[in-house]
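[recover] target loaded
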């Protein structure tokens, strides 16, 4: 997580801090000079953290000791205020990787939600990149932007387009399109028009029936190749001196990730240019008679 404090080893006012108690319970707060953290563990003035060590141990007025660290993006996503359903950390990492979101990329996103995916995209494209987010429900925008700015303070390279991505994408020569919408197949023709050649479309969907319809639409469009769908299951392990075993609970199904690459439509039949492939299979070489 970014920090306005000149010394990254120390907390600054306005920083996010994650407090962890002896039972691994987590409490996330935004540091303010006059604020006080309250819980059943006691009171801890924020001023005790500000200008003091990240990764330090801090004592409440009831004698309980808390570890204070900077929250990761995953920590923030799990704890942030939300309206619509969020995309969880195990999928955020895979989205950035599978869609190959790179520094300087131009990305179109379908669906703003609570802002977790947008924050991950903005961090991945960096200051030189751009993210355009299409959202039909203007009411969700203020909360989502507040969430995003907790993670990415400078969002000058982010544009919210209050419009239906099913009706069209105005941007052209887009590097990546990431969809978190219930009917992404409606956006496939527009994605094909907007993406650069070799650009990647990624869609997050909760059910396999939605995936099936999307894949059929991508195949029918003919401009998309390398269509793949994956699901990630995450299981943590408990490691102690006496035992090593999987945790009793795991983060199982949350959604399917489908990717496709924008290519030239595959040519059916004979073509005149020898460098262009076609679907007409060549005759197999005949074996010489013995």
């Amino acid at each position: 997580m970014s920090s306005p404090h000149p010394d990254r080893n120390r907390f600054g006012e306005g920083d996010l801090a994650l407090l962890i108690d002896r039972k691994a319970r987590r409490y996330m707060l935004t540091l303010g000079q006059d604020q006080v953290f309250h819980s059943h563990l006691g009171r801890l003035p924020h001023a005790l953290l500000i200008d003091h060590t990240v990764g330090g141990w801090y004592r409440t007025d009831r004698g309980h000791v808390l570890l204070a660290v900077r929250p990761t993006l995953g920590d923030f996503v799990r704890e942030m205020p939300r309206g619509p359903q969020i995309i969880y950390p195990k999928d955020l990492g895979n989205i950035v990787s599978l869609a190959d979101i790179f520094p300087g990329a131009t990305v179109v996103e379908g669906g703003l939600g609570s802002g977790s995916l947008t924050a991950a995209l903005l961090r991945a494209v960096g200051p030189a990149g751009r993210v355009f987010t299409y959202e039909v429900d203007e009411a969700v925008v203020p909360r989502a932007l507040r969430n995003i700015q907790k993670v990415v303070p400078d969002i000058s390279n982010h544009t919210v387009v209050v419009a239906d991505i099913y009706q069209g994408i105005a941007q052209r020569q887009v590097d990546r399109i990431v969809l978190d919408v219930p009917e992404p197949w409606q956006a496939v023709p527009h994605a094909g028009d907007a993406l650069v050649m070799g650009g990647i479309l990624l869609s997050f969907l909760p059910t396999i029936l939605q995936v099936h319809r999307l894949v059929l639409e991508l195949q029918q469009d003919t401009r998309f190749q390398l269509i793949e769908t994956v699901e990630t299951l995450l299981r943590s392990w408990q490691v102690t001196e006496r035992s090593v075993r999987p945790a009793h609970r795991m983060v199982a199904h949350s959604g399917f990730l489908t990717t496709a690459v924008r290519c030239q439509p595959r040519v059916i039949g004979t073509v005149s240019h020898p460098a262009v492939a076609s679907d007409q299979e060549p005759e197999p070489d005949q074996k010489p008679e013995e």
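[recover] notes: The chain has a mean pLDDT of 89.
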